[in-house]
Amino acid sequence: MVYIRQRNLEKLHEYKYSGVDKSLVSRYVLKPFYTNVVIKCFPMSMAPNLITLTGFSFVIVNVLTMLWYNPTLDTDCPPWVYLTWAIGLFLYQTFDAVDGTQARRTHQSGPLGELFDHGVDACNTSLEVLLFAASMNLGQSWNTVLTLFGTILTFYIQTWEEYHTHTLTLGIVSGPVEGILTLVVVYFITFLKGGASYWQQPMLPSLGLPKSDLMPASLYQMAWNEWYMVYGGLVLVFNTVSSALNVMDARRQRGQDPYKALLGLAPFTITWTLIPAYLWLNPVILHRHLVPFIIFAGIVNAYSVGQMIVAHLVKDKFPYQNVLIVPLACAIVDSLGPTLGLWPSALGDDVYQVAFVFLSLGLALGVYGSFVHDVITTICDYLDIWCLTIKHPYVEDTQNAEAKKSK
């Protein structure tokens, strides 16, 4: 399948990165650390995309330890495991942040770098949901699904905003900065407290705060993990509304219909109508096999986001289609039969349903892998570059080199 038409490839030469970072933590703490310390650890011969991929490998290691010690997301791991998660995620964030600096100093900036960076971030999103759920013992439950919804919506909205405004905007509080740092702190505290069970105790009593007569008992007894989800929900609403307003304002300034852009939220809405519907109809997946299903849902999102990024880079029309939701829709129709008393389910509610989830995961990996390979190969061939190594190292001209030496 061809994901980039030949007629659109010339638009790659018009690419120019545009980003706005409003985060105070990023501007005054992290960026000086990256610029003055971290970037010096990488040789000039190292490709920016290789830095990104190396950072992602730390997350993969974290997920593997989670699958070994806590595959059901509701069991305490050895404390050191949470420490490795904190270190691994911080390293991922650090490597992901300096790849752009490496690209600029090696003169390798280009559309492939943005695509690769965002693609890796999209894959990390669902994996980090699993790690967070395991660090708070959320288990295979609707709370974990709700966490996945909020995380994926944040990333989808951010990419949708960039497509329409042509600028990557990170707000005062954003997922790539404050969101990741919050998770790092959560993992580290879990390590200090000896396990994820700590987050299941009521927050206010554990802090020694007395109960007010005006406060409902249910609110006073809310656990740490429940308060965290409230906090995440508030941030989600704020960022979503801000992104929507930015998109509508940008289109209005260009003389375009500001409301038409909202149609770009349809793929996400359809997908997230199907996901909870399927899990509600098949509780065996929700409560016993949620981990592979979350990975599948994450790939579905990564595929949608990937198509959006490609359309942004080549200035193509917005991609509304996502073939990966077709099996999910078919499974829902199959499961509705017994519920409505109209037809028997071909998959049932046991082994065949589980097999369907793993087959869907395999299909998603195949389709997304094909997409990644085709897009990277097409861009590399057209721009005469390599993905994970530097094909044409930058050579400073003699005049500039002598001018620097004379200073």
From TrEMBL:
The chain crosses the membrane at residues 50-68, 180-199, 228-247, 259-281, 293-311, 323-345, 351-371. One of its GO terms (cellular component) is membrane. Keywords: Membrane, Transferase, Transmembrane, Transmembrane helix. GO terms for molecular function: diacylglycerol cholinephosphotransferase activity. It comes from the Eukaryota. It is found in: Endomembrane system. Pathway: Phospholipid metabolism; phosphatidylcholine biosynthesis; phosphatidylcholine from phosphocholine: step 2/2. It is a multi-pass membrane protein. Its cofactor is Mg(2+). The keyword Membrane applies. Its main location: membrane. InterPro entries: CDP-OH_P_trans, CDP-OH_PTrfase_TM_dom, CDP_ALCOHOL_P_TRANSF_CS, CHOPT. Pfam families: CDP-OH_P_transf. Belongs to the CDP-alcohol phosphatidyltransferase class-I family. This is diacylglycerol cholinephosphotransferase.
